[in-house]
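Before surveying the methods themselves, it helps to consider a single example record, giving the amino acid sequence and backbone structure tokens:
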Amino acid sequence: MVWILKLKPPVNWYVIKTMKLAMILLAIFAASIGSAQAPAPAVTVSAPPKQVAAGSKLTLTVILTFAEGFHGYQNPPAQEYEIPVSVKIDGKEFKVVKIAYPAGVEAKVGGSDKPTKAYEGVVKIPITLIVPTKVGGRNLKVIVGYQQCDESTCFPPGDIVATVKVNVVKKVAKA
């Protein structure tokens, strides 16, 4: 006679497995809350003229838009610990002549007793460049650096790249 013995795991095994799964799900949920991010600001660059003379000056406007309830610190910053909005040009073909950062608005931020200067909403930053002397189409990459904050939290700094096409010609045709 052969005895077949079926063993069932004890009830505690199911409880332990369910508890482990619950702990894993709780950890994932907590991590997703802790790593919440602010919506990235939007960046656009005003369109250049259809043709730009080689070696001439070109003025464009970088338009930076922060979502409602968020801000970035003005450049230059009011406090030395603040990370200001910055505009850079990628590459060496275009030479920056001037970046005219506007004054920020007075803002009260969490963790500070005194008000500071910040950019909120839509911010327009004019930039003046020297156009390359070599004729042809160019992609001008504008890099906007920022640290975005709300009234109680500052999020990690980031960069946004906006690209605009510039058609460099020897001489601009008169209209």
Notes: Residues 8-37 form one domain.
